[in-house]
């Protein structure tokens, strides 16, 4: 879908993110999967409940999901940095 604003074409994109959680005793695992249509990135993380803490599964879910999203964000920033460097190198080679 494209919109025109002041003579510029703008493209709207939709990326899909899913968070998968699983609990194993005192441990919670999370996978955050981002599908951009061109690439799929996956962040992973865990949360561990101390034996002296009460069982509140929601807290483990939140911690594991947040950490998986942080992992995913770091991967996304890394991909952007690599793509930017590659573009800079191509510009230098072509003398742009």
UniProtKB/TrEMBL annotation:
SUPFAM superfamilies, alphabetized: Rv2632c-like
InterPro entries membership: Rv2632c-like (IPR015057), Rv2632c-like_sf (IPR038070)
Region Disordered: start-end pairs: 36-59
UniProt biased composition (Basic and acidic residues): 41-51
Pfam families: Rv2632c-like
Name of the protein this chain belongs to: DUF1876 domain-containing protein
Source species of the chain: Streptomyces sodiiphilus
